[in-house]
Amino acid sequence: MLVAADLHGNYRDFLTIAHRFERLGEDAHLLLLGDLVHGPYVDPSSWPQDAPHGHPLAGRPYRDESPAVLLGVQLLASRYPGRIHVLLGNHEHAHIGGPRTSLFARDEATALEQRIGIEASLHMASFFRSLPIVAWAPCGLLFSHAAPAVELLRIEDLEAIDYRRYIAPRRTDKPRSTKSSKPGDHAARLLGQLLWEHVLPPFKAQSLLARVNAQIAVYGHTIIPTGYQTIGFEQLILSTSFGMRDEHKTVLLVDLDEHYLTVDSLRPGIELLPLYEHPS
Predict the structure, then answer these.
(1) Comparing C-alpha atoms, which of 52, 36, 27 is closest to residue 4?
(2) What is the rounded average pLDDT of the residues 178-187?
């Protein structure tokens, strides 16, 4: 299974990922960790030449091609049924009830919907509502868009998530008062945590992974200038496209018949691979 994160409307990178996937053979799967949409509206001629590593406009200039990326993903899924998997990211969620994102426009969801029109916007929203929030692989990996810092009591709690109900992650470790809690608040908090958290302390990761019978959490959402970062023995943050220079863009390739016990099992040059084998 080939895994990639955070395209943000970069059609060139999507085509490279699709080509890599197709070269893997008839048993291969592709998993995209969300945030397919919402890229820069900056004209490539005015793209900053000295943007530091990790800056949203670092790397090769491109202009947002979110509609082409979405169409490409859906065509790929129809060509390879059951083998293309996409998780919901916070930028997709902005179109179906989540907070409006404003990375490159004051309201990126509205800007994209105005570009593609009402009919295409309704089709896009229907596609986003169909996306799962997490994925498990039999090789011991748990995947999500952002750091899965969820207060998970039972796996079944994830099934209760309603994409129309969202509560932002709290910024304190103080216990949350339950006096004013409403039915569905726990699921709404889980959604916020799964889409927006950047950091997952190792002890929380270990607790979550034990509940879902996995060993390693893999997620994107955060720009890692070197392409990936490990935390403890059980977390991998992957940066495939957004805010990256070509030579550091990284994909993950795992064998679903293997069993990965720690992040040390995900080796540079074998499981962790450059998106561009010969970056220009």
Answers:
(1) 36
(2) 69
